[in-house]
Amino acid sequence: MDSFKVLVVEDDRFTRRVVELIVTNHFPEMEVVGRCGSLGEALRLIQESKPDLVILDIQLEDGNAFELLEQLKPIPFKVLFMSSYQSYMEESVQFAAVDFIQKPFDESDFVMALDKALDTFTDAEYAQRLDVLFSNIVGTPGNRSLVMATENGTRIIPVRDIEYGESITGGSLFYMTNGEVLKVSRPLRRFESLLAATGFFRCHPLFLINLSLIIRIDVDIQQVMFVSGHAAPFESRRTEALIKRYNELHSVR
Q: Is residue 6 predicted with pLDDT exceeding 80?
């Protein structure tokens, strides 16, 4: 693809103009074919201009991005999501590993995000990522799936099947309930805030654990024991917070 048609959907007029200028100034292969701030106008412009990429604010003045995308399935373009919030919807986008940028952003951040979005044009698994996104949107936190780029290719992993993650040089290891160990290049800290809402806790600088799969917390040897028989260490200074989070999670079940 030699050129890309881009549509900017953002309800803040100033941000919309900034985005357009960044696209124009840094990406001569991109042409902004339309700009708007509402779902209705976006639907019309998408049908008329048939963009290759839609830069789409998640929260719009008359609804949200997913209400728009539901009307367009199968989605014939790539999406770069934007948002100034951190809600269930924004988290779902990140779980699906779909391109996303947090507002406010600076110019270099947005350029990097657009560069990454360009890579999706050759991503054979993009439709699959969007399927995961929509599944996460309508599901509950405990039933979310996480798209992971492992050393053996992209995997879609139910979060409930992850026992714990371990930080290693050059990335992370994720230990699954079935005994499988997945190696990913992203550092463990990149998953910490994402998984916190689904019952995970950073019990140690090197370990992120799934509290829902713990059967015992052994304070004497500073280890948590999992249903599978695996164990992970925790720091003594995090003991109180660990027990509190564990009790909070299990008290609501």
A: yes
Residue 212 has pLDDT above 90, yes or no: yes
State the CB neighbour count (10 A cutoff) for residue 89.
Answer: 18
d(CA 72, CA 179): 40
Task: Supply the pTM of this predicted model.
Answer: 0.73
Task: Report, as an integer, the average pLDDT of 155-167.
Answer: 93
List of residues 6+ apart from 117 with CB closer than 8 A: 53, 78, 80, 99
Query: Which H or E run includes 224?
Result: strand 223-226
Residue-level pLDDT at 1: 54
Other C-beta atoms closer than 10 Å to the C-beta of 223 total 15
Interatomic CA distance for residues 210 and 242, integer angstroms:
11
Closest CA to 73 of 96, 48, 46: 46
3-state secondary structure of 139: coil
Helices (H), the chain: 13-26, 39-49, 65-70, 88-95, 107-119, 126-138, 189-196, 239-251
Structural domains in the chain?
4-136 (3.40.50.2300), 150-251 (2.40.50.1020)
Arithmetic mean of pLDDT, 181-191: 91
How does DSSP classify residue 222?
T
Q: Mind listing the pLDDT tens digit for each residue in 55-97?
A: 999 888 888 888 898 898 888 898 888 888 766 567 777 777 6
